[in-house]
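Hey, I'm writing a tutorial for new members on how sequence and structure tokens pair up, and I'd like a real worked example in the thread rather than a made-up one. If someone can provide the structure for the chain below, I'll link this post from the tutorial.
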Amino acid sequence: MAVAIGTSISAFAVDGGPFPLPDSTGVLTPDDPFLLSSPLSSALITDRDTLNTQGLPPSFGNWDMSAFDASSQSIYIPAEVGTGAGVIRYDVHTGFFKVLMRGNGSGVRAADPDRFTASNDDFARLDPATATPFGSVLTGEETTGGRLFEIRNPKSNGANSQVEFLAKIPSVAHEGLRFDSLGNLYFVDEFNSGSVYKFAPRSHGNLKTGQSFVLVVDDYAGDASLNYNSGSNAGAIRSGSAHWQPLTDEDGNVLPGVSDPFVFVTTTGGRNAADSVGGTPYGRPEDITMTTLANGNEIAYFTATSEDAVYGIELINESTASVKIFVDRNTIDLATSAAVGTPFNNPDNLATGADGTIYVVEDQEVPNSDIWKAIDVDNDGVAESIGRWLSLGIPGAEPSGLEQDPNDPNRFILNIQHPDSGNDALWEIRVD
């Protein structure tokens, strides 16, 4: 049964201990899946079995990075499946949903934007759903030749949601998508030689045309085309002063000497373009979140899952940046007062709380996945310590899509993705 976001506190399951938790949980039950630190509580919002009774498309499993709309009434949920992927809008007050985009299950994805028809195309591994500052919703394919789509009318009844293929944003394996205060879009290529990108729209709010860039650390001297930990890259500097290397001009025209970033489906054009200009490679960048530092500069944090690290890109100005390690296995664990070490494993998703606190979500199915709360006392983009905030104990599952309610600083949503039962679920986490 669906539980509306306004559910009274008496309906919530409370099970845990003080923050930080000293260890991960053991195996728990679908009805009570989290070990929670104090003062957290949790409640089920909805799950796949419930929505199946309403006609959820059979392929819509693997719920990934969901997002609120500005009013908190709707939650957008993407399905990260290999074929027949799509996005739904779930209404937290009624408990019902609308399908906003749905792949036809053919396995055929249009590489040519001029031949793309949203109602008759397949979609693969839609990982993020990100609400834009302009009232639309973005979603992208986390696969070879990944495409990015904008749902221009996400409040529609589904039939006229206006899904557009954003053909002037480079092709990568999409996951993290976030905007800065100027409307620039930051995104990553989820790959073990993946780079970080910026797209500056030609006009505010119009993602059809603009200039694309890739992040280059100034002192990086490795081989951009190889994995982050290859022989030539293992000791290469990948933090410090950096700049945004242009791949296109302001109208999206590919610059001389740059590999075409707009080759979709058949190959990952954005990755090839990054390699052609020496874009700095990281170990499987996944999610991005934004906040503001004490000095007033914005910072884009991204996870490097294979590196067991979270980096921060401090945005100095339009063309320059400073890259720093925000959290890694050398960061102090609040529970032990020693370096956290191997318990911090496979950081995947990120979330920013209303007070600027960064939460780090692990992708670790065996034995447990934890969510860590980072403590950056002086707000300089380097955390002094981290602690376990909660731990998920459902076999085969990972937590995904943690996001704070934009209208309630004490409320988050979180998906339980691909449990062994197949019953993906959307939960509320409340700071009581």
